[in-house]
Amino acid sequence: MRYAMAVDTKKCVGCSDCVVACQTENNVPIGYCRDWVVEVTDGTYPQLEIEIRSERCNQCDNAPCVRCCPTGASHYSDGGIVLVTPNKCIGCGACITSCPYDARYPHPEGYVDKCTFCIHRVKKGLEPACVSACPTKCMYFGDLDDPKSPVSEILKVRKYKTLIPEAGTKPQLYFLI
Amino acid sequence: MTSRRDFIRISGLGMGGLAVSASSYAVYKKLSSSPPKGPELSLDTMRTPTVCEICFWKCAGWVYKNEEGKIWKVVGNDDDQHSNGRFCPRGTGGPGMYYDEDRLKTPLIRTEERGKQVFREASWDEAFDYIAEKMKSIAVEHGPECTALLTHGSGGKYFGSLLKAFGSNNIAAPSYAQCRGPREVAYHMTFGEGVGSPERIDIRDTRCLVLIGTHLGENMHNGQVQEMSDAIDKGASIITVDPRYSIAASKSKYWLPIKPATDLALLLSWIHVLIYEERYNKEYVEKHTYGFEQLKAHVKNMTPEWAYGITTLEPELIRKTAREMSDAAPAVIVNPGRHVTWYGDDTQRSRAMAIINGLLGSWGQRGGFYNPETIAIPEWPHPPYPEPQRSWRDAYPGKYNLAYETIASGICDATIPDVNGGCNFKAWIVNGTNLIKTIPDTPNLLKAIQALELLVVIDTMPMAITGWADVVLPECTYLERYDSIRNSPHRKPAIALRMPASDPLNNTKPAYWMAKELSKRLGLEDYFSWNSIEEMLDWQLKQVGSSLEEMQRIGVKTFERSYNDLYFDKNMNFEFNTNTGKVELYSTELAAEGFDPMPVYTPHEEPPAGFYRLNYGRAPMHTFGRTANNALLKDLMEENTAWINPKVAGEWEIENGQYIWLENQDGVRSSFPIQVRITERTRWDSVYMVHGFGHTNDKLSRAYGKGASDSELITKVHVDPIMGGTGMRGNFVTFKFEPKEEEAES
Predict the structure, then answer these.
(1) Taking CB atoms and an 8 Å cutoff, what residues of chain B touch A136?
(2) CB-based contact (8 Å) between A61 and chain B?
(3) E-only strand ranges, B193-323
(4) Are residues B476 and B556 in the same domain?
(5) B43:A116 CB<8 A
(6) Per residue in B233-255, pLDDT tens?
(7) Are residues B666 and B726 in the same domain?
(8) What is the per-residue pLDDT across A58-94, written as a single tens digit (0 to 9) for each?
(9) Are the Cβ atoms of A30 and B232 closer than 8 angstroms?
(10) Is B333 exposed, middle or buried (0-12, 13-18, 19+ CB in 10 A)?
(11) Count: domains in chain B
(12) CATH code assigned at B496
């Protein structure tokens, strides 16, 4: 089993519903977020292009955050999801520095927090909160080992990229282009 | 001028209110900072149905509570055609409105202490007695018609009933003359029907979607954005006309970077191409339209080359896009848009768009415009309403005959004593609309407010308008109340229930309760003869084969259509509700009223040297100025920015991220500075900003002073002579590097 997510940059309108849905679902404190929206404009008026990406933890196969964690709080869980065990975390912040995607934040209660792919929902057969809320249905989630999962199906037919592949992290967050 | 009515910042709140506020905020802090308890959370327990009130789309959803019984999250109802189970960021951020510690907490009455006007906290009884006494004495002296209701939102329905029972039908929503009114009139003139809300556009099945200044995606009309995404999946082409490279433009096959204020020239040249290249829907036009030959003669010289000189759009691009629409016809939508009060000729511009839809034969066809249906829910029985003797129309003899709804700005004008003697308003009830931001020309609005003998404001938040009120009535949020049944037109008739997920916080109350209590004091209790809202809703629901118990369980109930007429058979004879029974390309009704029967392009004023046209729009995470203080949404966008083209920024030596003040052509400078966003996404002749920021009331602790208000810079209003709409895009701004003098001194 290998959980992954694909985000369609052609359909995303950058509304940030994914951010609020995550924030309420996971009680992320005001002022912090586990996912965020990046908008990149290229060109000169009127020859322009915009790419919009809903970004979050890339749930890397080769995660620098797990490697550098001194206590084992950051670890691989079911389906390759990277999780943090709050009561093992000493809040040293090494993982925050090591993450090339800036996906982690220091929770005010003293541990480091990040996207979990809403594993608590996934275990119940639900989609992650961001995926289920998105008005444009631009996010696809599932098990890459299952060829019939929404994420496998879409990656078969669409061009995609990952972010900072040169970091060697083997990210599992794909962007459809 | 010395004003009788001072603006009061709501600061006189007693400790009671503050203490309650602190505790409610503490609840939220606790909620938000508690470690995630995901796996233990029960996902399907403790949910109640709601209908979102954060914008007018009114999506139906579910409110979930956490294990402590506190409101946790709001998600869409899968059975709802407005949301299809997916809320937009504002709806998802609903709990932020409920937990906002700045909410109004208790009734307030204006009073004078040591020569200074202040609010004092009042009981509901005191507030109602005060209002009822004033309303009665105004009715005796001036007639009941001199009380007007200005409203936006669900609660207004109950105050509307109260006002009608009282003897006035002066009920206005700024969403008409300040927003979608010209479009409604234009479609009535053309097809004999309005577009309505949600708009009857079949984006789901369209092959070509044309957006004229409509920025879907940033404009988060939930169902429409969802269907636009579906249409992209299905390979539909999108054509976007916008001087700004909007998000929709970035999803488009064709983006037409038009010079602002010239849209009508483009539309007329499109009509020219469709007719003279014989690319219109001939069968449809022949069978269903009136005035084709007149239209053909009318646009004879309006070639793409003619339009090029006006719009700066290349003739070939104009031709190509017209052909693209024609190839898709009838599965094509020239989107009527929603906020269309731009330049004062807005009914005519909307007419040109309607005419194109007529030529392409998309009205009533799959992928074009569908025929929506609602179900009839009977009203709770009440005595007949008295017949008012006068209305706002008396202030405008012979004018705006084609306005089907009341003009909010018209009520405002008719309140100023020296403007119109015919029907001066003496009392306003303002429900859920911050007029300071919704009605353009603030000095004129304040003149009207000064002339009032009674101003009652009902709101959940201390918006600027509350500071001018005699009485402020704090409404509980939509998450804490029942409301009337949502019954809006869609592909299938459907109803939705809003019920309280929590008791009202503080001393707040629902609008239905306020209206009923006021009715008792005005001797109008027979109009509100239900014992409880539950009793009324249950009775109403039983008339349509449901019940309150069922709706509490399912939230949304969808009915089958009564006829199979979502689209009409284009080969059948179809009688349109116009004078000729046809789609009127040539409007007989406009001609009869003395207006151009077919749209005529007239140039609009250009910005003077050193000034730029002020364009404004929406951001997907905010609704007007209503959500700026919502902690969850403020986190996504805290303030607006002034979008400036790099060339312009270079000339002015303005840097990205710098704060500047905008000053308009009348010397009005923004109260607060605005951050500059230098971007290629806007033209060099205009400045763009998102509407709804620059709040002036410091009791909105998160929104106060954040960004600038476009509304205060819109002092020049171009009134649509056909229906009284207030065109707001004829204002120009320049850049200033220090605040207004009086503020600099303080």
Answers:
(1) 225-226, 228-229
(2) no
(3) 208-212, 237-241, 254-256, 289-290
(4) yes
(5) no
(6) 999 999 999 999 999 999 999 99
(7) yes
(8) 999 999 999 999 999 999 999 999 999 999 999 999 9
(9) no
(10) buried
(11) 3
(12) 3.40.50
